[in-house]
């Protein structure tokens, strides 16, 4: 290294320190609290608690779709764990909805060249006739291409949308891909198709399909909908490229039992604030998962992070000023039922939720935080940003952050929020698949993310800033 | 870059050129042939033929286990392709054996925490009773640990061997892992176990199990044998770590129909030598595959490479001096039946096979060649090494090369051979799984490897070197 470079680096350091010191005046945390914050960082970075919670949940419960036996076990698991972790209060709030049963899904190419296909029913799909459907395939590269053809022009055909999700660090390939999953069956039915088959919304190349929620519309015929694994979608395309007719067999036995109202619950635990117990810092994750895989990433990671973060703070000699509330939402995957119920149940006291964040975005390290708060509190947010910067978190210049998944519903209802963005490059390799298992958790990233959530929650609970819009 | 470094590089270049020129005297190829060799390299590097062959095989045939419908289709496919590619002679030689039918394999953890497991029967396994087996698990970290316990000490238990294959560039983690697959059921039966369950021999972390051949021994009870995916083996271990009894349910419906003698065939094609038609340069691959996946890597890659290599040489205005014979072996996966039959059928003329190489090692680029030839021909091999060096191939200092898989049987019978070693780091992520599909082929590595095989075959066919031991 040349002397010139060294001097430049020293100069930069001086500038950085100057910037840091400019935040000393009017800081949210006093020096004792700053010491505690550092201790919490150290505790979280050394603790394996968040990993242990995910290991326990995936080993002892496994997957847990709304209304299933696993869902029921998960609620008991969460209540018991919260009690064991020393939460001051633990309770459940009922959430009702319908219970969709996956049954089986089988598919194969009939002609020109027979092959078995790896396929999963989309969540909520109706069944095929018991004997299945055999039909020629009508191929569309995108949902827009399917939308563009005349209504009732696909009679007797299976619509196949082959759009492939792209990989990005912020997961922005998901948006353009997921529309087919959610709305594809309605569009295909309007065109007269007897079923929708789509390429999985996922970035991997495994013979493993990705499920996820889909929707029907009143007055539009309900047709079965399924996702092919990426390699199976490739194979179907390669047969289509040869120019002749390609026919598929599809058999799905899924059903939603309309008679049964399934009961689940939001599981809620608190460390009660010492000075302002009625002001709530909210940490969220969802307890349910798809019925494939073990829900280790989606959202075992969130469960582990927010429970561990609250526990670490609860181990301090004194409770922080504000209450820290952990909300483990029910039935996120099947349509944010737990979040909607929470907003309904807590409408009158939503303005006591002073700041909230959820974790429901998988494996990678957090690299950015985006606040969505009243402008008067941005200095406090910048102070938090300073504390989190050494963990690799950059503060976004935007102030339009919306909390992730369930808590997005609380953000929309007015709750000040922070959205923490992780490296999402590999998340959609595993999302909503059998491959969502414990081995995919990255313990080091998990420790860092848990530390960030711990420090965020402590900061928000000790700060006297008013984050409201 | 400093002037000093530039000068050093120029000096190195001069040294390299000097070394190269020292091979001019007594070279195997004359200047016209060297020009042809370069043309062949250029042709192979630009051609997509090897990829197209794999695409065709995996799309139009799919998997092809000895004796299956796919096997029959693959033989017809190979004969037709060889004819279309202009081979001078194409014929088949029958290979017989038994046909193993996989049926279904299901497993789940019964207690303490129920979970479905992803499992595949090992190739050749017998079935469980129709109602399956439910038994406590006896865990062993290695096959040696299982071997070390007293005979008949596992009555009423399922033996579980959890050894995990390690990842290496040369695939050397396979050897220590595969013994459990091949011999584990015999050892477990000797100990009195009712079934063997093992962690898959594979380096991936997918919910996809790896199959592969296993063996029984006369006078030892035949017990069912199955492989768990790596994440499922982890889950089972995590339940075992809790200390209590863990029980498994296993149901396998596989069978070998002893009444049926399955017929398959080695498919053989030649470009006949112009001067020494009775001297054979042999290129091998195997046409069969496991009945999961599409056999794109194992051994579609070999099929594509050796057929394309021979075709490129066959497009020259004149045939090389020696015959180039492509042998697509039957039934490699179930015990090298095609190779053993070939050695038997061609015993009398094996010494006319002047040099041979197979490709049955997957995706990665070749980085090394190891000859197994008579010492008198090592100068010629060094010359070949010079031609291949620009493609990244290092010549091993050893002269103990044995051809891969099937052709290993020909090496053992005395055929001079070359073993080309590829980057095998990712091969065992996909080996013997449903994930062995076209998308795993790396087109650029395939082009380079095809160029290497093309140049190797041309060199061996034009050279007058005697490679015999």
TrEMBL record, chains A, B:
Q: How does it assemble?
A: Homodimer. The monomeric form is inactive while the homodimer is active.
Which branch of life, at top level?
Answer: Bacteria
Q: Where in the cell is it found?
A: Endoplasmic reticulum; Golgi apparatus; Lysosome; Secreted
The answer to whether the entry has keyword Zinc is: yes
Please name the GO terms of the biological process aspect recorded for this protein, alphabetically. proteolysis
Hey, what's the signal peptide range on this chain? 1-27
Any idea what this protein is called? Carboxypeptidase Q
Name the InterPro entries on file: CPQ (IPR039866), Peptidase_M28 (IPR007484)
Q: What is its main location?
A: endoplasmic reticulum
Q: What is the lineage of its organism?
A: Bacteria, Pseudomonadati, Pseudomonadota, Gammaproteobacteria, Alteromonadales
